[in-house]
C-alpha cells in the first residue's frame, strides 16, 4: 500500500507542477512604460471608457519553442476570429509573428483567462506570494498597498467568479525588445467587502455583477525568462 501511495503522490505532484508552469508561461517582464495600477475592487465608473492602447509582441513559451511554425495561410484569414484583416491589431500581430513564428494568440488567451481569475482571487484573499509571481513590480506594489490598508482596517473581501464571458486581444505591440499584449476581459463576479465586525460595506454577496477590465501583459524578449507578467490594469466598459 505504501508503494501505491508513493506513486500517486508523485503523479499528483508532477501534474501540479505542469499546470503551474503552463499558467506562468502566459506572463512576463515589466516595461517601465505601463499605466498606473488600480484596485480591482475599487468602484468602477460606469461612464468611463476603456483606454485600449495598441501593442505588438512576440511570445515564446517553453512548449511553443518545440513546435513547428504553422502552415502559411492567406493574409485575410491569418487572424480570423482574432482581428480584422488590415486592422491596426492585425498589423501588430503580424509584427509579433515576424519576431516569433511560434506565437499562438489562442494559446495566449487561454493562459490569460486563467491568470485573470487567479490574480483577482489572490487579491481578494491577500495572497501576496501568488501576486508577486504574476505581476510586475509596480503593479504588485499597488496591489500590496491596497491589501495592507485593507488589513489595517480589519476588512475582508469575498469574491467568486460566475463566468468569464469573453477575453479578446485588443492591442499588440513590440517596443524595442519588450513585447506587450492588451486583453479586454468581460466577466460576471460576485464580490463583497466586510468590515471587522462582518458588516457589508461594499458589494453584495447575493448579486452577480458584470465586470469589464483591460489588462496589459508584457515580456522582455531579450530575457531568457519565457514568462509574461501583468504590467497595467484599468476598468473598462
Please provide a written account of the structure.
β4 and β5 form a beta hairpin. The chain has 237 residues and is an alpha+beta fold. It has one domain: Roll (Nuclear Transport Factor 2, Chain: A), CATH 3.10.450. The protein has six helices and five strands.
Overall number of strands: 5
Biggest β-sheet: count, sense, barrel?
5 strands, antiparallel
Summarize the amount of helix as a percent range. 25-40%
> What count of domains describes the coordinates?
1
| Apparent shape | globular
Mean pLDDT: 76
Low-confidence region ranges:
25-68
Could you tell me the strand content as a percent range?
25-35%
| End-to-end CA span | 56 Å
Summarize this structure as a short list of keywords or feature phrases:
alpha+beta, 237 residues, 6 helices, globular, Nuclear Transport Factor 2, Chain: A
